[in-house]
Automatic annotation (TrEMBL):
Belongs to the synembryn family. It comes from Oceanites oceanicus (Wilson's storm petrel). Chaperone that specifically binds and folds nascent G alpha proteins prior to G protein heterotrimer formation. Also acts as a guanine nucleotide exchange factor (GEF) for G alpha proteins by stimulating exchange of bound GDP for free GTP. GO terms for molecular function: G-protein alpha-subunit binding; guanyl-nucleotide exchange factor activity. InterPro entries: ARM-like, ARM-type_fold, Gua_nucleotide_exch_fac_Ric8. Keywords: Chaperone, Cytoplasm, Guanine-nucleotide releasing factor. This is Synembryn. Coiled coil: none annotated. Interacts with some GDP-bound G alpha proteins. Does not interact with G-alpha proteins when they are in complex with subunits beta and gamma. It comes from the Eukaryota. GO terms for biological process: G protein-coupled receptor signaling pathway. One of its GO terms (cellular component) is plasma membrane.
Length: 234
């Protein structure tokens, strides 16, 4: 009942501070699988997707003031999808992966979006891990390898000297914590999406995998903010 009450409030147009507080409470509650059973419905998923700006035709990143709401809604979706098989099935029906790829593309060249990008990538990782049909959809329909590779390239701030050779700067500073976390989530999602890609058929795929291999090499030469984070990245 508490979760339903929170979602009823979130369905209305309330202040940003109220939305964030409600989403934070829902995120904590959504760690409990028993609590999720009555609230994992299509309507409730759509409420969270709307708050995460996943279903909008307008620019989802137009208002910086709404970024905390987007982040908290994505965190809630991560918990719900991880803990609920029903939510995983609804994600396919609601075309969640396509919306996440679209939001990820909108994050390009935007400021203050690292948290949004990170939890978008984490949600793509969870979907590709827990639902084989979504994994196939990402690979075949949504150009998931390309989208995720670009997200990884952006997180690592790769600069190119040749087509498949990234610039090596031994004096470059370590990645920030947010950049490292984004790169790690992109790598995890890429692993899932490319899991069955041992047989490359086309010239486009060949280019994509050579391009990704160059970025992965650059990743191994990159350091994170701490020794533990560097180890996790590698």
């Amino acid at each position: 009942k508490l979760c339903e009450g929170i979602l009823n409030i979130l369905e209305k147009d309330t202040k940003t501070s109220c939305q964030v507080a409600c989403l934070e409470a829902l995120r904590i509650l959504s760690r409990d699988k028993k609590v999720l059973v009555p609230v994992t419905t299509k309507r409730n998923m759509q409420i969270l997707m709307r708050l995460a700006k996943l279903d909008t035709v307008e620019d989802p990143l137009a208002r910086v003031s709404e970024f905390p709401v987007i982040v908290e809604a994505l965190k809630c979706l991560c918990n719900i999808i991880f803990n609920s098989a029903v939510a995983q099935k609804l994600s396919l029906e609601l075309n969640l992966a396509a919306m996440l790829c679209n939001l990820l593309e909108k994050c390009k060249d935007q400021q203050f979006v690292d948290d949004i990008k990170c939890f978008d990538l984490r949600l793509l990782f969870l979907l590709s891990l827990l639902h084989t049909d979504i994994r196939s959809q990402l690979r075949q329909e949504l150009q998931g390898v390309q989208v995720l590779t670009h997200a990884l390239e952006s997180s690592l701030s790769v600069r190119w000297t040749e087509e498949y050779k990234a610039a090596e700067d031994h004096d470059s500073p370590p990645l920030s914590l947010q950049e490292t976390d984004c790169a790690i989530e992109a790598l995890k999602a890429l692993f899932n999406v490319t899991l069955d890609s041992w047989n490359v058929h086309s010239e486009t795929e060949s280019h994509q995998f050579r391009y990704m291999a160059a970025i992965l090499r650059h990743c191994l030469l990159t350091t994170g903010p701490t020794e533990d984070k560097t180890e996790e990245l590698h």
